[in-house]
Design goal:
Chain B: This is WD40 repeat-like protein. Chain B: It comes from Thelephora ganbajun. Chain A: This is Translation initiation factor eIF-3b. Chain A: Keywords: Initiation factor, Protein biosynthesis. The complex is a heterodimer. By secondary structure, chain A is α+β, with helices and mostly antiparallel strands. Chain A has ten helices and 42 strands. In chain B, strand 22 and strand 23 form a beta hairpin. Helices cover 3% and strands 47% of the residues of chain B. Chain B is mainly β. The longest helix of chain B has 5 residues. The two termini of chain B are 23 Å apart. The chains are: A alpha+beta, B mainly beta. The interface between A and B is medium-sized, with 23 and 22 residues.
Chain lengths: 727, 334
């Protein structure tokens, strides 16, 4: 439902038509027989046993919490035989009591031969009077909706992004300079922030009442999730589920809406909810407590790559894995792991996804690879710290490694699931200094060989090259690490490592020393990397690097030659807070968000070489997000084909560009010419006016005659008028 | 462009002006001193001493004979450019914020501040050019008190008997100084205080700068906004380049918040914008405080900027500035 500009989110409710729901759930009050229930399955008795039976029935009802006094039971009597008819009427105090009794007592055995059957009196009437002819329900004509992935079919192949500034949310297209335009804009679209789903299908907006999802070319509302005061959201990897978190526990006030899309009384007090996006149904709620001191870990529940499972860790105790869509605990028990701190699912690479698709097509589910997850436990008295990789759901341990002198571990999977790097912060025996080990598990090889890279400094950030065999780390031996203060910029070193296939170990490619960069951003296609200094008040450098500068296909050769590492450019975006590559890996967006500071807010877009393409300084600027793209639908062969004929394509594109450029410059020149012509004519006009005024001034110099003459002339006019009146 | 750094002031600059020939540059500052310099080499010719407070404003006549100055010591003074002597002194209840000669050098307009219970006033004095200039009328020829927002800057219009004023609220107005009546106004010319107002040579249009981060070109006749130049920093000064279709803008972070921001972030550059196309063409950096005032030599060969940092930087344009045609062969009238 499109919301017109200017309406606040509170008004969303007003614009929604509830009439169908109201009609459906309309309660027709009929006071007279509402509280009467028909009880069947009563033994047939004669008059003598009547009192006894009624007392017994009353007791039986009382046992299950339903009160009915004997005097409110009416027994129909067959005078001909002198026996009861085997059913009786019960009059309850309120319709609610009647309903309760119907639910509680139906199908309850009275004795070995008799079983109670209860019906509301009104129901009996209703079903008796029902029209027996079947009326075929009218099937609504199918209306094809908007394609949720329409933006991918853009003929110019542009990417979309969303910006949030002040109260305004704008979705824009980004392409060549002439093709950048606003796709959609709305005021007050969100109350907190906006977020894309991982495949880019939906745009989520957060409101006081809950989350809204929007999609399609006209940005219609696709789904709503009523989670009051929602603060954090997390999508599942394939856009099928949504997790929401609110700081305040769920309260279900009396008379609130009920249904599969809403919280029920059972959900009270919980703060995390899992929803099915397609149906809008609430699947389950949890209570996830967080210490006031420690920040809540988000996402609190982690998804397996195939969306079959979602898991959460209870630190020190267990990992609980839930199956979807039932959201039941997998195998009815959690993984009890004493001391467990953190875990990560293994992501699925393109290969895994292809295989899974193939298996799904052929209908042979047996060959699907199991999920993997890695977790770590810290050192306790006599036990070393341990990193474990297990498969799931078989729960068998695939690899385990013991570690000593561990103060902290971070698990980093490479995005194809080829490697797992465990960044281990270790302390020396005196516990005075901290250094770092990188334990790299080669998951695709037999027995998961582990390669160790030792680093004598503290490693601040670690990042795998997407789809690659390289990684970059930020390390520092600056004493200021760990106690950030205003004006302190930590000196860092950046190192690149690469897997050497022949030896099976990781080799240092190059170290860049004395930098201030603290953030590594790999292009989603690999090869290019940006090193940024984020969150500093004095430095804000962006360095653009290419790791395969010399060899066109350097990645395949895997020579591990450091000569291919080339600095492409350096740029600066003052006060940068966020750095993000677009899905194609051609452009980089940097933004300075008003959420962090208020100096020079805005965003800039750069190409991969570090050339500034756009820069917008906008006060109250908050958010910039590229719209993610789903995985390509082209097969490997098709992709190869395109790569082979790249020259052909580029020729066409170059021609298009050239044609457009001449077009634009012609337009621009014409526009400028027009502006200059306008200006010149205006100037000429002005000069004429001045000349006229000068002439007037010369007259003035001769005396005040000119002025007096005018006055005389006015006198004459007045006289003329007087003459006319006299006529 | 090789800038000449003029280090003759001890406090921030308030206004600088070239004389008509462009060979002399006058500068005034918060340190109570008015200096005059040779613009071609930056040598100081002399000073005009006597003010006992911040000198807010100066103007020189077209013959380089008389210099007017207005100060926070509540006086308006007339100086002999040649001798440096104070020829006449007018005293007011409040400070003088803006002063300007008319086209024929026989009148000056000045704004006195609204302060301490005194109303802000705009006065027009007749200047006698006879004799040594010491005999001047002590009373203004015309005086009026504009109602509403305080006037901050003023200049004579091309239309007789009219002055153009810029106001605290961002208003730009035309007053008839004989009657004191507001003839025309543009309430929304700017969103914040108008900080500078400079006339084109023939006074048919003028440029204003404002704290609302924009500069605008107005038609003097009816105050129609011709062009708008929007920057990302509060502006203190705007000047028209002569002979070339450019305008110069100066400003920067507010002086009070400068210490909390880095140099590059303060945007203390002088920006060159294209007058007609409303797009930035270049920047000249150098000041390490906000640029308070900019003046372009009427000959069009050099410009000067005065900063909060107390320096005046005189830039003589390079050969390439005159030869380059970044927008092709488009002839723009001045």
């Amino acid at each position: 439902m499109a919301i017109p500009n200017g309406t606040t989110s509170d008004a969303i409710d007003d614009t929604i038509d509830y009439s169908d729901l109201e009609a459906k759930f309309k309660v027709v009050a009929d006071e007279s027989f509402d509280n009467i229930v028909v009880l069947d399955g009563v033994p047939i008795i004669d008059n003598s046993r009547r009192e006894k039976l009624l007392t017994k029935i009353s007791k039986e009802f009382a046992k299950r919490g339903s009160t009915i006094s004997v005097k409110n039971i009416i027994v129909p009597w067959d005078d001909a035989t002198g026996e009861s008819k085997g059913y009786l009427f019960m009059e309850f105090k309120t319709p609610q009591d009647a309903e309760y009794a119907t639910n509680a007592m139906n199908d309850i055995p009275f004795d070995s031969k008799h079983t109670f059957r209860l019906n509301r009196f009104l129901d009996v009437e209703k079903y008796a009077e029902m029209d027996p002819t079947y009326v075929e329900p009218e099937i609504e004509a199918y209306k094809p909706g908007e394609h949720l992935r329409a933006w991918l079919a853009d003929p110019q192949g542009r990417d979309q992004y969303v910006t949030y500034r002040g109260d305004e949310v704008t979705v824009g297209w980004h392409g060549k300079p002439s093709q950048c335009e606003v796709a959609h804009t709305r005021i007050n679209w969100t109350n907190l922030y906006v977020s894309w789903s991982p495949q880019g299908t939906y745009l989520a907006t957060l409101h006081r009442q809950g989350v809204c999802l929007w999609a399609g070319t006209s940005w219609e509302m696709r789904q709503r999730f009523a989670h009051p005061l929602v603060k954090l959201i997390d999508f599942s990897p394939n856009d099928n589920y949504l997790i929401t978190w609110s700081h305040d526990p769920v309260v279900v006030p009396e008379g609130s809406q009920q249904g599969p899309n809403y919280f029920s009384l059972d959900d009270q007090g919980n703060n995390v909810a899992i929803w099915d996006i397609k149906t809008g149904h609430l699947l389950r709620t949890f209570l996830i407590e967080s210490d006031d001191k420690k920040q809540l870990q988000w996402p609190a529940l982690k998804w397996s790559a195939d969306e079959k499972y979602v898991a959460r860790v209870t630190p020190g105790q267990q990992i609980s894995v839930y199956e979807l869509p039932s959201m039941g605990l997998q195998a009815k028990k959690s993984l009890k792991i004493e001391g467990v701190v953190d875990f990560e699912w293994c992501p699925h690479g393109d290969k895994d996804k292809d295989e899974a698709e193939k298996a799904a097509k052929s209908g042979k589910p047996g060959k699907v690879k199991e999920n993997m997850l890695a977790y770590w436990t810290p050192e306790v008295v006599n036990q070393p710290a341990r990193v474990t990789v297990i498969s799931f759901p078989s729960r068998s341990v695939l690899r385990q490694k013991n570690l000593f002198h561990v103060s902290d571990c971070k698990l980093h999977w490479q995005n194809q699931g080829d490697f797992l790097c465990v960044k281990v912060d270790r302390h020396t025996k005196t516990k005075k200094s901290i250094f770092c080990n990188l334990e790299i598990f080669q998951v695709r090889d037999k027995d998961f060989p582990v390669e160790v890279v030792e680093h004598k400094d503290t490693v601040l950030d670690f990042s795998w090259e997407p789809k690659g065999e390289r990684f970059a780390i930020v390390s520092s031996n600056d004493p200021n690490v760990g106690n950030p203060g205003p004006g302190i910029t930590v000196k860092t070193d950046i190192s690149f490592y690469q897997l050497e296939r022949s030896k099976g170990d990781f080799k240092l490619l190059r170290t860049l020393t004395s930098r201030t960069s603290n953030t590594i951003r790999w292009s989603p296609r690999g090869r290019h990397v940006v090193l940024a200094t984020v969150g500093s008040s004095t430095k804000s450098e962006l360095e653009f690097w290419d790791l395969d500068f010399n060899t066109e296909e350097g990645k395949k050769e895997g020579t591990g030659d450091s000569s291919g590492i080339q600095h492409l450019g350096t740029a600066d975006h003052y006060g940068v807070t966020d750095v993000e590559w677009d899905p194609s890996g051609r452009y980089l967006a940097t933004s300075a968000s008003a959420w962090r500071h208020t100096l020079e807010n805005g965003y800039a877009i750069w190409d991969f070489k570090g050339q500034e393409l756009q820069k917008h300084i906008l006060d109250r600027f908050k958010q910039f997000l590229w719209r993610p793209r789903p995985r390509t639908l082209l097969t490997k062969d098709q992709q190869r084909q395109i790569r082979r004929t790249l020259r052909e394509y580029s020729r066409v594109f170059n021609e298009e560009d050239a044609a457009e450029e001449t077009n634009i410059s012609a337009e621009l020149i014409a526009h400028r010419k027009r502006l200059v012509d306008e200006w010149n004519t205006w100037r000429v006009q002005c000069e004429e006016e001045i000349v006229d005024r000068r002439k007037g001034k010369k007259g003035e110099r001769r005396g005040e005659e000119a002025k007096e003459e005018i006055e005389v002339w006015i006198d004459e006019v007045i006289e003329q008028i007087e003459e006319e009146i006299s006529e | 462009m090789r800038p000449i750094l003029l280090q003759g002031h001890e406090r921030s600059l308030t206004q600088i002006k070239f004389n008509k020939e462009g060979d002399l540059l006058f500068s005034c500052s918060k340190d109570h001193v008015i200096n005059v310099w040779f613009s071609h080499n930056g040598e100081r010719l002399g000073t005009y001493d006597g003010h006992n407070g911040t000198v807010w404003t100066i103007d020189v006549d077209s013959q380089s004979r008389f210099l007017m100055s207005g100060s926070a010591d509540n006086t308006l003074r007339l100086w002999s450019v040649q001798s440096g002597k104070c020829l006449y002194k007018w005293e007011f209840p409040t400070a003088v914020k803006s002063v300007a000669f008319n086209e024929t050098d026989d009148q000056v307009v000045c704004i006195t501040e609204q302060r301490m219970g005194f109303q802000g006033a705009i006065r027009v004095f007749n200047i006698s050019r006879d004799g040594d200039g010491t005999r001047q009328a002590s009373e203004p020829a015309h005086i009026f008190n504009p109602i509403g927002s305080k006037a901050t800057v003023c200049a004579f219009s091309c239309v007789p008997n009219r002055v153009v004023t810029g106001h605290m609220s961002g208003k730009v107005a035309i007053f008839d100084y004989k009657t004191g009546e507001e003839v025309d106004n543009n309430e929304r010319a700017h969103g914040d205080e108008v900080t500078d107002l400079q006339m084109s040579p023939d006074r048919t249009y003028f440029i204003t700068s404002s704290k609302d981060k924009a500069a605008r070109l107005h038609q003097t006749k009816d105050l129609k906004v011709l062009k708008t130049y929007t920057t990302e920093t509060p502006l203190n000064s705007a000047a028209l380049a002569f002979g070339k279709p450019y305008i110069l803008l100066g400003g920067g972070q507010e002086a009070m918040s400068v210490t909390t921001t880095s140099l590059r972030q303060g945007k203390f550059e002088t920006r060159f914008w294209h007058k007609i196309f409303e797009e930035e063409v270049g920047r000249v950096k150098g000041h390490f405080g906000p640029v308070n005032t900019i003046a372009v030599s009427p000959t069009g060969t050099c410009y000067a900027s005065g900063g909060e940092d107390g320096f005046v930087r005189v830039h003589h344009f390079d050969e390439t500035y005159f030869k380059a045609k970044p927008y092709g062969d488009l002839e723009v009238l001045d």
